[in-house]
Structures are given as structure tokens and as C-alpha cells.
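thread: overnight batch results

M.L. [08:02]
morning all. the overnight job finished for the chain we discussed friday. pasting input first so we're all looking at the same thing
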Amino acid sequence: MSVSDLNIQKNVSLKPYTTFGVGGRAKYFVTVLNSEELVLAIKFAKKNKIRFHILAGGSNVVFADGLLDILLIKLELPKIFSSSGKIFGESENFLRQDGERIICEGQVCLMDLINFSIKNGLSGLETLSGIPGTVAGAIVGNAAAYGQTISDPLVRVQIFDGKKTHWLKKRECGFSYRHSLLKKKPWFVLRAEFAFNAGDRKELIKKSKEIIKLRLKKYPEGMMCPGSFFKNILLENIPKKSRHLIPENRDWYGKVPAWFFLNEVGARGMKRGGVYIPDYHGNLLVNDGTAKFKDIKSLADELKTRVKKRFNIVLEEEIKYIE
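M.L. [08:03]
and the structure it wrote out:
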């Protein structure tokens, strides 16, 4: 296969490809079906000196308005499960199990990997249930929820570094809270290997459903938002002079949720243009259908200013701006 086989389009609207429903148009656009096509698209962009962005499920990203001089590489998400919950035969091209180990293609939906592991009685990622996006995206951002991170059961990742493909051991990826070396380096996750623990399938299913139920309260279906907007703060990073402002009897797994700071500074109910914050959760920025990029940036900056003034803490966006 060669670059000429890729169907590169021009002047494509970005809004339909994001959960936020915000953004202008990409000068170039291509959909890729697998890792081979992804590598070809990246090589095309590099050879032609075109800035590019890889997009999967469309969460955790905010595109600017107008025409963006980029190549948007859209990952086609493989179908692993049928509507009845059965595993498709061709899913073995994307998920391969060997005992308690699974090798997974990066473009697989994180939820499909979780369901696949649970279906096989494997524990390690069930509390990440309901988090949108792909396995690759979750690894880059070291997705975490309720005491588990995707890097916990991770053994190694295969990356394309812009020139060649090779494997990295977990310790080489520099994982920390909601972060990894993969965020800083021009590397692209193609696939990953996980080592899970044996678990009780019924209990894993129960836990997964409980977590999803909690997430649906925060993110109702159809809500136009990119997910949690700001990162939580590790308790150890809270300035000493601000510690007294944090409730001592709350167990947040060693961190303080960004919504706590935002709720305290009056974020709930705020509105700027077509973007608003619901009255039940300060760390959600929602598009009412008319939001503009400038509205989002303006509101986000106002929130960061308020938190800095009250708690002497600088909130960091969990989403990524593409301008």
C-alpha cells in the first residue's frame, strides 16, 4: 500500500467529528482504517510539511473556528462487538488474547478493550468504564478513574516515532498522573500489550455498570462537551497555605477534583456566548449549539483566574486546543 491509496479530502468541516461540536474546517482530511494507513498518513504530512492532528472519538479536543491549515487524520474505529454483545470474528485483527495478556490495536475504543477483558474474566481497567476515546489516546493521557489508570496493567506499547516502528517498555513511557512521555514526544501509539489479573466476571460486570451509571449522571447522552475540561490536582501539589481550604474528610484517591475548586469559585451556571457550565458540575463546559472557540477560551481563562486567586493553584486543561 502507498500514500496514493489514501483518500485525502480538502476543506472538511470538523464539527461532526467532535463531541463538543465546535470548530471550523480542516484544509486536509483523511480517514485511516488501520496502523499501516496511519503511518502512511503521518509520512505524507511530514514529507509535505503539513501540520497534522490524529482524531479518534472526538473527545478531549477543541478546534478553533475558520480554516485550519492541518491534515486531520481520522481513525476509523473497528467494531468489536455486535449489538447483542457477541464478539465479531474479525475482532482478532484488533484484539488478541493469550491467557491473561491482551495485545490491542491503538485505534480500538477503550470501552471495547474493557468489555473484552471483562468478558474474559480479566480485571484491571473496569473502573475506567464509560471513558470515551481510543486505547491509544487513553495511553497517551494515562487515563485514570477511581484509583485505576490504564498504565497499571500496561506492559509495553508499540510506537511509530516518525521514522520507524518499535516497542517501548512501560518504564520508558514516563507515566505519571494524567500524563506520559508520549504527550511530549512526536510518537504515535500503534498497539499495546496488557497483563491483567484474573477476576470474577460477574463482579467485574457489576462494577463496570456502577461506574457507567455514575458517568451518565455527569455526562447525559447527547450532551455536547469534550469531557472534563480541567485536570484534577494531586493532593501533594496543593500549596501548604491553601491546604486548609480542602476538606480533610474527603477521599479522592490522593487528588482533589478540579470541580471542587471550580464549584468553590462560582463556576456552576456561568455562561459565555454559546458555552455554559451546568449547575451540577463546575468542570463541564457545554455547547448549547452555538458555541465559538473564542467563547470557550474566554470562559476557561476566567475560570483559571478565579481558581488562581482563591487557591493559588493554576488549573491545567485536560482538553487540547487545536488552532
